[in-house]
Amino acid sequence: MELLSGADMLIRSLQDQGIEYIYGYPGGAALHIYDALFRQDKVKHILVRHEQAAVHMADGYARATGEPGTVLVTSGPGATNTITGIATAFMDSIPMVVLCGQVASTLIGEDAFQETDMMGVSRPVVKHNLSVRHPSEIPEIIRKAYYIASTGRPGPVVVDIPKDMTAPNERFEYAYPKKVKLRSYNPAVRGHAGQIKKAVDMMLAARRPIIYAGGGVILGKASGLLTDLVRKLEFPITNTLMGIGCYPSSDPQYVGWLGMHGTYEANMAMHHSDLILAVGARFDDRVTNATEKFCPGARIIHIDIDPASISKTVDADVPIVGPVDAVLKEMLALVKESKEKPDAEALASWWKQIDEWRAFHGMRYETSPDVIKPQEVVEMLSRLTNGDAFVTSDVGQHQMFAAQYYKFDKPNRWINSGGLGTMGFGLPAAMGVKLTHPDDEVLCITGEGSIQMNIQELSTCNQYDLPVKIINLNNQALGMVKQWQDMNYESRHSHSYMDSLPDFMMLAEAYGHVGIRIDKKEDLEPKLREALAMKDRLVFVDIQVDRVEHVYPMQVARGSMKDMWLSKTERV
Amino acid sequence: MNMRRIISVLLENEPGALSRVVGLFSQRNYNIETLTVAPTEDETLSRLTVTTSGSDRVIEQITKQLNKLVEVVKLVDLTEGPHIEREMMLIKLKATGAQRAEIKRTVDIFRGQIVDVTSSVYTVQLAGASDKLDGFLQAVGTSGVLEVVRSGVSGIARGEKVLSL
Q: Engineering a disulfide at A387: which of A70, A353, A407, A479 sits with its beta carbon 3.0 to 4.6 angstroms away?
């Protein structure tokens, strides 16, 4: 057997795990590892400008591909800078392994230079964390880390590696474990057959059914099965912000996404339904509004790989713990072989009602002859890219507009921080996507507030030639904060605007990229086309949009699903 | 309605495992009333007992969230079935004059033992369900109590049910 140092074993383990890219930033405690990285060329390292961005890059990669991302940082500030990124991945169940250097084991607890208790600091925001106590454990720990990160309900796993574990002068026998088994960790591999049967019977007997799908469908690679089931049943389908793309948005059975800024028809259909089939969704507070008023007439079937997601905020009548793909497959088979059919008449009248809701509102906004509306920018981008781009976003109004007006027909295309709501996510996430999808269009739809939270990554884009398109919906304000201040604080705009914005064109150019500014409505389409035509350049498109626009629909706080503002003046 | 529960957990005997359990309770705003933990006959496992209270939904979440921790091997809510609950208490009482005989009688009634004696202090050992220990403290009154140490609750199911690998 081969003898390798801890650092070489770590890098070899990554190779054997099939890891092509890692994102990171070197420092004292990680130097043995960085030296091992230098002496090989299979694992490629992307040097970011801030560790938070490394995590978001790994995250963007993971969301676009479904494969775990990998991060490498040093101890202390290197490690703590990853926390926001790790928490972002944790909230959205994104598979990821974060390798952190640590001071030598002999120094731990002595407040050594760049020492932080990363095991303790990361504990509340990881699926699991592991600490290396002997160099010979490294291959097994790495194997375990990827296994835990990517199975069951996925999530980030941190590996804490004291510097002496990677010392170059001590060598150990290397073998990468083929299998890993943990007696205390056994995620469900299929759902309970009896529960699935019961659920299908309820579905076939429903009169006003709706399917409510979440990010779990995308993570569980079950979009195809879900689509087949929805079409077979002819039920309406809505999905969460995280589930966008799990069902084609251009399909007539799709009623749009639901919740705080969801469509009128999706929220109305949920509220009035008699049966909800929840698939890989977690009844988040941004979806349910006040839980005690949530869908009063509905019985709920809830499929989730994580038992703790079931009956957490809203009680499920039929809980089904299992991977969504396996459960949907069984459901589809039962529906196909069942002699019972959904009541055609009841379903027709349900669809008639839904179509009336659609006709009453649908997605709309007021256009203006001279002011550029943020919604129309997104609509135009959707048209110019045939709805086929990878779109990342930051957090705020632009995120909602992007989710509402870009027409996604495929999963893994819409990439946003839905759970944690992390500003600064969009650009590095887009970079992570572009690196592994060089021929695809990758848009980062952002705002002038969010983009400045990781703007330093323009430098990384230059170094690694990552020609993403940054679409800056610039309203010169922290739009969502301002909207809430308009609605709840009598328009007292406390610290929600910035009056010293940089010249984004010059900034982009300073980093070696192209900057385009759009402030006239007639320039919007030609200049967007010009930006998109520059395939091999990063283009920063700074668009001056309406400064007072709000995002609608918006659910009324503490109301039911059906209580919404449809514009600044219409409330239903 | 908030019910008191005794949750018994088999945990991998690894550094940091206990902090995950304790962290989970504070992170999710659950309540810990007592907590005991020690290795079992299998040195790779620890047995942890936690008493808590909450609505049925909260208790269900606590057990599910505990089960989600990678180092939790198995757990049981002992209060769901017949079970034996024990807590141990060491208590120092002021024992002078006429009190000495009175305390001795109370200790006997509660089937405790006086395990250390000085001219003015009795140290008493008492084991039982938590409410029995509460009852003893009430019986001797607060004025004479110098120091109390309680172990927290340990529990085990009655009959043939076992919590093991």
A: A407
